[in-house]
Design goal:
Distance between the termini: 41 Å
Shape: globular
CATH superfamily: NADP-dependent oxidoreductase domain
Number of helices: 10
Number of domains: 1
Oligomer: single chain
Number of strands: 12
Largest sheet: 8 strands, parallel, barrel
CATH architecture: Alpha-Beta Barrel
Helix content: 25-40%
Radius of gyration: 18 Å
Structural class: alpha/beta
């Protein structure tokens, strides 16, 4: 598919972001490199990674390979990465760590930089550094990930730049409507990770019936559902055939009744969550913080 035909969303600072992207969570550097090159070859524009994934070098290599093989230009790509939790809370540490991320990605800027998690006591200072990164042109837009409404309000109270994006889990099994509605009132766009809910609804009879009616796969229907709700969708795969299938969701439209039927599948259940979400990378090199849904 011609990348120019893909739908785009205009963020609150005027930057345009493609509405469908490739995620590389749980991919090795080798897998990420090949996946990114393959995705760009097949018309993808938006690539989403993070320092936490441990594959920024692979993503950078994949971009360079696509440039050489297919003539892809850096300006053709919308590249997203995230500030590592262990780097948060200190202005200078955030800036220094991000410089290394740019080196690994082999670029002088990213198109969207996200704060990966709202680390208690650290996310406001992290945001201050990200605002400077934005001002210096090392990121075209900045946003957050996994922020609930309380943390978002606090961030808005302390920052001077409204986040362009909040990347959270959204799929037919979990809508997080309170967060979606609040963020949209602030001009913050929603970006969905796990848009297929780890495949939990791919065998659902409602989804399968709708898919058959459109001669599409259940996965294509679920991704289309996200697009029609105005959500930016990040789908993770390393398989070329699935990448191609994911790109074939712009030639059909779900009816209002079909959208309502899929809406009715909501159970507000996370497909993926972290009871003990740990990270390293602190100045003393140890894990000294545990984030859970209760102690964000």
């Amino acid at each position: 598919m011609n990348k120019n035909l893909q739908p785009q969303i205009t963020l609150n600072n005027g930057v345009k972001i493609p509405q469908l992207g490739l995620g590389v969570w749980k991919s090795t550097n080798k897998e990420a490199s090949q996946a990114v090159q393959t995705a760009l070859h097949n018309g993808y524009v938006l690539i989403d990674t993070a320092k936490q994934y441990g594959n920024e070098k692979g993503v950078g290599e994949g971009i360079q390979a696509a440039m050489q093989a297919d003539g892809v230009k850096r300006d053709d790509i919308f590249l997203t990465t995230k500030i590592f939790n262990g780097d948060q809370g200190d202005y200078d540490r955030v800036r220094k760590a991000f410089e290394k991320q740019l080196q690994d990605l082999q670029t002088d800027h990213v198109d969207l930089l996200l704060e990966h998690w709202p680390v208690t006591g650290k996310y406001n200072e992290t945001w201050r550094a990200m605002e400077a990164i934005l001002k210096d042109g090392q990121a075209r837009a900045i946003g957050v990930s996994n922020f609930d409404n309380g943390r978002m309000i606090d961030l808005l109270d302390h920052g001077t730049v409204t986040p362009a994006v909040n990347q959270i889990e959204v799929n037919p099994n979990i809508h997080q409507k309170d967060i979606v509605d609040f963020d949209r009132q602030q001009g913050i766009h929603i970006e969905a990770w796990s848009p297929l809910g780890s495949g939990k609804l791919l065998t659902n009879s409602v989804v399968k019936k709708i898919a058959a009616a459109h001669h599409k796969t259940p996965a294509q229907v679920e991704l289309r559902w996200g697009l029609q709700h105005g959500i930016i969708v990040i789908s993770k795969t390393i398989h070329e055939q699935r990448m191609r299938e994911n790109m074939q969701i712009f030639d059909f439209e779900l009816t209002p009744d079909e959208m309502n039927a899929i809406d009715g599948l909501n159970q507000e259940k996370h497909a993926i969550w972290y009871d003990k979400f740990k990270w390293s990378g602190n100045p003393n090199g140890v894990d000294d913080y545990v984030a859970t849904p209760e102690n964000w």
